[in-house]
Amino acid sequence: MIFASQPWSKAGALWGGISIAGVGLTHVLRVLARRHGWLAMPPDALLGRMFAGVLVIATLAWWLTLELAQVVYDARIPPLSGVLYDKLSPGGQLRNVFIFQVLVHGCWVAIYLAVTMQRQRWRTQVSLQQAELRLLKSQLNPHFLFNALNGVRSLIADEPDRARDAVTHLAKTLRYTLAVGDEDLVSLERELEMVEDYLALESLRLAERLRVERDIAAAARTVRLPAMLLQTLVENAIKHGIAELKEGGTLRVGARIDGDFLVLQVTNPRPPGAPGSNPEGVGLRNATERLRLLFGDRGTLRLDASNAACVVAEVRVPA
Questions:
Q1: Is there a contact between 185 and 224 (Cβ–Cβ < 8 Å)?
Q2: Are 292 and 268 within one domain?
Q3: How far, CA to CA in Å, does 241 sit from each of 71, 201, 229, 265, 269?
Q4: pLDDT in tens for each of the 319 residues of the chain?
Q5: How many whole angstroms separate alpha carbon 65 and alpha carbon 101?
Q6: Residue 145 and residue 254 in one domain
């Protein structure tokens, strides 16, 4: 048996060594990529680093190929390469051996990236589904439902028109909560409509103690954000702020465009001696997790409790 006019034993030693070295070098590149978070980088940064990595490992593999050929065949160019590039000068043959190494390792790395990115998309989708389930459980708050139903009941006899309106708001709130279970992102306009229904129901319980100010930029209304995000911030502000104050307070909801980001702010008065909005609440933890899954480090939720009089929840998402 021959291989490029050479025994299989020598060909096996040469190409087996090259293959083992190639696997080892690409494994080192994989470890570096995972350790330094390359896969979470923007496409341009990721591709630049991977291209540089391919050039480095291709250069090492090229050098190893020449050294193994020297040891096994006592020739600088492997016999198979010599057969394929026999019409080229020695320098041209060396160049083509290097190009071959770049193509082989480039294809291998490209396949790895494609498979890894697909696995990451699957994992992200599963994580999002789990977060959605936790979100629905946390937002279908039984205390809120009981309070809303008690408010409706108190209106039925004396104010039937307001009772009918309240039932409509409750139905729309529940319908929205269930409907967005299959959606990752909704427009701010749609989220605001749901929040208005939610606030109408909370006003049954808090009456004049709940005052609302809105400052929503027109350009912000079309930006898409995680479903139920604004409602979570509003609920948290009312529960841990306004509802804890005997005189109530003013809830401020603002949205604006800042460069490439939508900035969403919910401000509530802070009860004396209280920590303000609860940063460890289930709703806020879910919101933070969903922002991370959907936007990476470009989606943030920050609570500012530095002011003794109020707490500000601020969300930034790509516009």
A1: yes
A2: yes
A3: 78, 17, 18, 15, 6
A4: 344 455 666 666 777 777 787 778 888 888 888 887 777 777 788 888 888 888 888 888 888 878 877 777 777 676 656 555 566 677 777 787 788 888 887 888 888 878 877 777 777 776 666 665 555 445 545 666 776 777 778 778 778 888 888 888 888 888 887 777 667 789 999 999 989 988 988 888 888 999 999 999 999 999 999 888 898 899 889 988 998 899 999 999 999 999 999 999 999 998 886 654 555 566 687 788 888 878 888 999 999 988 888 999 999 999 8
A5: 9
A6: yes
Count of Cβ atoms closer than 10 Å to residue 41 Cβ: 15
Is residue 133 a part of any domain in this protein?
no
Do 164 and 284 share a domain, yes or no?
A: yes
If asked whether residues 187 and 277 sit together in one domain, one would say: yes
The domain boundary residue, chosen from 93, 124, 155: 124
pTM over 0.85: no
190 in the same domain as 252: yes
CA 63, 67, 68, 74 dihedral sign is: positive
Domain that residue 300 falls in: 140-318
Number of domains in the chain: 2
b/e map 242-264, b = 16+ CB within 10 Å: bbbbeebbebbbbbeeeeebbbb
Amino acid letter, residue 303: L
Write out the two tokens for 203.
């006003």
Q: DSSP states of 98-132 as a string?
A: HHHHHHHHHHHHHHHHHHHHHHHHHHHHHHHHHHH
